[in-house]
Amino acid sequence: HDITCAFATYGTCVERETEVRENVQAAVKDLEKTSYTINTVLEKMHNTRGIQNLQSICEDCVTQLASVPALYEALQEKVPAGEYYRFHHNFRGTTQRLVAATCLITYLRENRLAPHEEVAQSLGLCTQREKGFHLDLEDYLLGTLSISHELARLAINSVSAGDYARPFQIQQFLRDLHAAYSLLFPKNELRKKFDELKYALKKTEEVVYNLSLRGLKPQDSETSG
C-alpha cells in the first residue's frame, strides 16, 4: 500500500517534469525557426549578387533578429527558476547559431568582432550567470569561432565576384581572431572549433597568396598581406 501511494506521487512528478520539458522544447522550436530563417538569408552572401548587396542582406537579418529577445523571454518563462543548466542542452546549439549570425552581421557591417556583452544584449539576454537565464560564455565563444568557416567561404566567393579587397580584410580579421583565441589555450569542444578557425585562416591565406601572385593586392593591404 505504501509503495502504491509513493508511486502515485512519483507519477504526478513525472507528468509535471514531462510537461516542463515539452514546454521548453516548444519554445526552443520557435527560436530554431528564426535561426534557420536568418541563416537562409545569410547564405545569399555567397553568390555574386549577394556579395554586391551584403548590406541589404545584413539589414534583412537584423529585422529577423529583432524578434529573438521576445522568443528568449518566452523560453525563460518555461525554464524553472534555478534550472538553467539542467535545460541548457536543449537550446545551446540554437544559441550558438544565433551568436554566430549576430557576430557575422556585425563583422560584415563594421569589420569588427562583437563582444560577449553586446551579443547578449542584442539577443535580449544578460551575461551574469547568477542572474539565471543568460548567454553562457562558452556558447558565445563557440558561436564566434564558427563564423570562420563562413568567412573563408566568403573570401573564395569574393574572388569569383571580382571583389579582390575582401579576402585581404578577412585574412586580417581571422588572424586577429586566431591570436585572441590562442590566449585562451582552448580545450575540448573549443579546441575543435579553434582547429576549424586555423583551417579557415589557412584557406584564406591561400586565396590571398594567389591574388598577390596575380598582382591583385589592393594598395591599402600592403601591411596585412
Describe, in plain words, how this protein is organized in 3D:
This protein has helices at residues 2-43, 48-52, 54-65, 68-78, 84-110, 116-122, 137-145, 147-160, 166-182, 188-213. The chain is built from ten helices and no strands. It has two domains: 1-145, Methane Monooxygenase Hydroxylase, Chain G, domain 1 (Up-down Bundle), CATH 1.20.58; 146-225, Methane Monooxygenase Hydroxylase, Chain G, domain 1. It is mainly α and 225 residues long. Ring-shaped heterooctamer of six TSN and two TSNAX subunits, DNA/RNA binding occurs inside the ring. Keywords: Cytoplasm, DNA-binding, Magnesium, Metal-binding, Nucleus, RNA-binding. Pfam families: Translin.
Question: Can you tag this structure with a few keywords?
Answer:
225 residues; Methane Monooxygenase Hydroxylase, Chain G, domain 1; 76% helix; elongated
Number of DSSP E strands: 0
CATH architecture of the largest domain: Up-down Bundle
Helix content: over 70%
Oligomeric state of this protein: single chain
Looking at CATH, which topology of the largest domain would you report? Answer: Methane Monooxygenase Hydroxylase, Chain G, domain 1
Amino-to-carboxy terminus distance: 79 Å
- What radius of gyration results from the CA coordinates? 21 Å
Question: How many structural domains?
Answer: 2
Top CATH class of the largest domain: Mainly Alpha
What is the averaged pLDDT score? 92
Based on secondary structure, the structural category is: mainly alpha
The outline comes out as elongated
Number of helices: 10
Element string (H = helix, E = strand)? HHHHHHHHHH
Write the CATH homologous superfamily of the largest domain.
Translin, domain 1
> Ranges with pLDDT <50 over ≥5 residues?
none
Q: Strand percentage, roughly?
A: under 5%
